[in-house]
Amino acid sequence: MADKYPEFLLRLPNGGPVARGRQLDEMGTNGSRKFTVGPGQPVRLSVVPSFARQLPSAHRLRERLIADGLIKSSAHWTDHLETTGEITFNSPSEASAVLTGSSTNGWLAWKTQDGRPLGDYMPGASWGANRAWLVRGSNVTGLDLVRRVWLPEGRVSLAGSRLRQGVEQGISKEQVRILVEEGYESTATYSQKQQLVDDVHAFLSRMKAGDTVCTISGGRLYVGQITGDAEQTESEDRRANLRRPVTWQETGHPYDELPEELQQKLSIQHDVVELTAVQAVIDGLGLTDEELAEEAEVIERDPSAEIPAIAVRRELELPVPTDELAADLLVHETEWLREMRDLLWDERQLVLYGPPGTGKTYLALQLAEFFGGGPEQVKLVQFHPSYAYEDFFEGFRPQEDPETREVAFRLTAGPLRELADLASREGNRHIPHFLIIDEINRANLAKVFGELYFLLEYRNKSVRLTYSGDDFALPPNLFVIGTMNTADRSIALVDAAMRRRFAFVELSPRTQPTSGLLRRWLTSQDKVSEPADLLDALNSRISEPDFRIGPSYLMKKSVYREGGLERTWRTKILPLLEEHHYGEGVDIEKRYGIASLRASLPDPLPEPSA
């Protein structure tokens, strides 16, 4: 039976010799296809330090083969061992692991003379790179199949109790749909049948030998490698009648200690979930950077390329604000900016609130660009009363077909979805991305955020989206800064749920850094201090803090042209106060006019005599 396959080659690490082996159709104890290696084949002398921990069964087999004399010191290759007789392994991965002394994927490591991997020759196997999967088995109609069957027997299974016999690996999704409709016509809802079609098709036709598989039981994540084909069996209780052989790592990983991006994917509530987007995270579980580097040496790879499992560990960081940044932003002290950084790091959502003209939007943009490393990682949206979830995240929008000129409603991503997709791309996950929401309190927040409200508080979870039906989570490197005008009475729309999910920082003319901002700006521009004196006098006459006037009205070049200060006061500042006192009969000019304020200022000190 071995002759139906070509001879496969395995290059040992660091330019070592090449071992040769044959694929068999004979099945091993758990349904894997066996693999044989003849006498006189090279074996690596040492093993990587993590080998016994990652693949204890392969490590024990290697030790037993050495003790039995089937592997001994080589007379042909320096610093290598060699096989002394024919050895039949349970799977190609077990063979490559024993020969290289490391956890390797035999379906990729064994190759033909012209470089094609063994996995390409397996019947019914899907094409393409290896994937990672989650299959749930801890509560299958009340039984924990993980501990009872999967781990001890080396398998993973899926319940297809009402599927008729004859279901085969490689079946098309349409064929699965027909079988599910036939078997579950009156026993499952429409959505249940749709999900079962997806799960069964993934299990039978998208998974393949060499893929990574994960499962959860008892608060721990267990990781293994699929080692063979899918089969349909006559299970006694039919809770596990679709099966695949798996080599499981013996030790699980505590769920609470898993990286956040992995927890997000694991929180998706389906029986079968693709985890390929976080495969590099899974590959690095329980291993140090040094151990990963040693394992990478065993695999034929581009030595200049970064090891994915190490690259994905690059820490997400927010730069520490500097004295230079504080000087550029005219902030009174660097420590205040560092507190903003700490709040963003701890909460990931921050609101700057205060009266108009206090520089909330400007400061939000400057902080986002500094922490994100540039404007490319920053997106700004402005809320308004008619803003909705469909504008903010995703919804159906009329779009014209460029060829037919016909208009149809198509699902369109909003600014948050676009930024989240950008932040979660491979290579971007360690780079902070910022969404600035200007006037955040002017929209109906519960309507705009929808189910995303939950994700703002629980970043390690995912939710099913309203329109697309995708499972979505906010990337850990996505930060949100909102601005809120407290003079706008729509602040009443900000409910307790919103306040719980955001840190709130006041920018007020009565407190730093806003109270002294105009005076610092005038000094930096070599201008007289009168505008700052006038603003202080004005705000001292306004009893309600939320209606005091911010300094940004007087931090523009137009203010300092001929007549500019008076013009700005008359057209920008006084109208705000007229609206505030509407119907109260207050003489705005007499109380807040620039002439009245000037008269209240102390006379300037006389110039010293020469």
Polypeptide structure, described:
With 610 residues, the chain is an alpha+beta fold. 33% of the residues lie in helices and 19% in strands. The protein has 24 helices and 24 strands. The strands form six sheets. Strands 8, 9, 10, 11, 12, 13, 14 and 15 form an eight-stranded mixed beta sheet that branches. Strands 17-20-23-16-24 form a five-stranded parallel beta sheet. It has a four-stranded antiparallel beta sheet with strand order 1-2-3-7, with helices on one face. β2 and β3 (33-37) form a beta hairpin. α2 (56-67) crosses α3 (92-100) and α6 packs across α7. It is elongated and about 105 Å long.
End-to-end gap: 112 Å
Question: What are the low-pLDDT stretches, counting only 5+ consecutive residues below 50?
Answer: none
Structural class, judged by helices and strands? Answer: alpha+beta
The global form is: elongated
Q: For the residues shown, what is the average pLDDT?
A: 90
Percent helix, as a range, is: 25-40%
Number of helices: 24
Strand content: 15-25%
Largest sheet: 8 strands, mixed
What Rg is obtained from the alpha carbons, in whole angstroms? 33 Å
Strand element count:
24
Provide the descriptors you would attach to this structure in a database record.
610 residues, alpha+beta, 8-stranded mixed β-sheet, 5-stranded parallel β-sheet, 24 helices, 24 strands
Question: Can I get a quick summary?
Answer:
With 610 residues, the chain is α+β, with helices and mostly antiparallel strands. The chain is 33% helix and 19% strand.
